[in-house]
Amino acid sequence: MVQPKELNPFDSPQSFYGAELRRLREKAGFSQEGLGERVFCSGAYVGQIESASRRPQLDLSQRMDTVLDTGGHLERLCRMVLKATKHAEYFADVVDLMTHALTIRQVSNSLIPGLFQIEPYARALFESADPSRPAEKVEEMVAARLSRAWLLGNPTKPKFWIILNENVLRAPVCDRQGMYEQLMHLARIVRARRVTFQVMPASVGAHPLMGSDITLMTFADAPPAAYVEAARSGHLLDTPAMVESYAEAYDFARAVALSPEASLDLIESVAEEYSAQ
């Protein structure tokens, strides 16, 4: 059972949802485990939602409304929480899961993953995705992306292992100075021994995940999950066979990528190419 903590329900929509769920659960006489059994999730997961450390899900809210006989109250609150999220709806659940993951493994064939982006790189992406997007909205989106970097502050959790296609390093997403700073940022992260990066050389040719951007996550109290992303969309998968298939493909891709040491050398070499002119 997740022990109750002091929660100000007016801190955020998610906090309000958590406080309401706790109130309704206790009013109905359920423990966290008891409610979890009725709605097909763990008691720990119920506790995490109540403490506002996990984002509520719409289908789960609907099941809890039925069990707790709330007249759709939790579904309405859940929609409010989803509307208030700072991230794209299809990615918000992934951000939530990352904060609880033990390990995060990624393959990126298109862009430097958002968690490792710096301001010029992120801003160029958001501006190019929608040239008519208001400057204020761009700044809001950049701030939301950069705010995720706090996840790197914990020296032990999660453990990261990232495979980047060489073309990602060489694609001039922003100006030369910005690209130099972005790649040196990656190099500093590697040298701090916080994240393991491997570069997939362009010379490798075909490899198991060359057409996909994949994130694989493992957890202490939940099955592993996979997230597959494309432009403006993404799919979160938790079917064991599918996740295992992606995990095997990841291992094959890792086997043909450069070693972490050679990858760091290449990252710094490409960074110097950007600074040469």
From TrEMBL:
CDD domains (alphabetical): HTH_XRE
Pfam family, one: HTH_31
Domain HTH cro/C1-type: start-end pairs: 21-74
MF terms in GO: DNA binding
InterPro entries xref list: Cro/C1-type_HTH, DUF5753, Lambda_DNA-bd_dom_sf
PROSITE patterns assigned to the protein according to its UniProt record, in alphabetical order: HTH_CROC1
Name used for this protein in its record: XRE family transcriptional regulator
Organism: Actinacidiphila cocklensis
